[in-house]
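Recall that a protein's primary structure is simply its ordered list of amino acids. Everything else, from secondary elements to tertiary packing, is in principle encoded there. The following example makes that idea concrete.
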Amino acid sequence: MTSRSTARALRAIGRRALGVALLYGVATCTDGRAPTAPQNKPENPLTAGPIAQTLLTSGGNGVNQSVYTTASIAPAANALVLVAVRSRRSTGPLTPTLSGGGMASWTPVATVDYDPVSTPLSRLVVFRALSGAPGSGPLTITFANSVSNVEWIVSQWTGVDASGTNGSGAIVQSGSARGDAVATLSVALAAFGNAADVAYGALGAALAPPAVTPGAGFTEITEATSGESTLLEAEWGVNLATIPASLSSAKNAALIGIEIKAGGGGGRGGGVSAALSTVSAAPASIALGSESSTITVTVRDDNGNPLSGAGVVLAASGTGNTLTQPTGVTDGTGVATGTLSSSVAEPKTVS
């Protein structure tokens, strides 16, 4: 997608200086896949790239305790990490806190109680986190009191909207369903705003795996168990607003469904806006050979919101240029940066 900056004529400072002029600079933004050639159209809607799913770890523990620890994980930068946790307690369900896993904090996305519906003893909860510079390590799942058994599934999602706080931009909507002695469950979300968005489902049931069949079009991520005839299952599918699953026999069960927003214009945001996106250079004048100018591209949608996950390709007019391309795609603030230096003193048009 193209974006136009304000025309600025900048002077070169002496013979040893290079004037960097952004004269109708054009930032060519793609969906994070292979860059395309710059377009001369005033506006070209950005198509979101595919979201990719990776299972980081899963497991369960049937020992009565209040603290559970997963295997170590190493999330990717700007990837959404979802952690589904299923637990049971004889005197009522508890919501745990999460820590570790290379993330500064974890935020609950959705919760549902079941088993049985009238006086629930089990709880299914999904947490989210996202970081531009994550670390690594095990996750610690901590309850206020002991629970009898716990399962967890930790999945990673790249190509998502990285805006917002701790992955909030990647979550569009959620819903849940529950039942006693049910063989099927289904969560109906609102129609997705973009065909690249992904549906995620997490199901808990009083049944030993393997026992879950994902709905049509869905792929199972995994089934985890504590070893005490309970299971936690996760599945996903592209642009499927209804999230169904079936069990091998009728049991007390619950299902959470979530829409994950694709980066670079996925979800309910608009495409790239040429009028609201910007290109800038700092400093405007640089010494030949010994200095460089930082080129900053800020990609925004039609509503003025920053677009993450967009590829940005830079070019510059003139000769003797050394141009460093942005590393990766735009970050959670819609920004990508590169650098420009030159051995020839002349105004440059950065595009």
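DSSP finds no helices and 23 strands in the chain. Residues 1-49, 265-269 have pLDDT under 50 and may be disordered.
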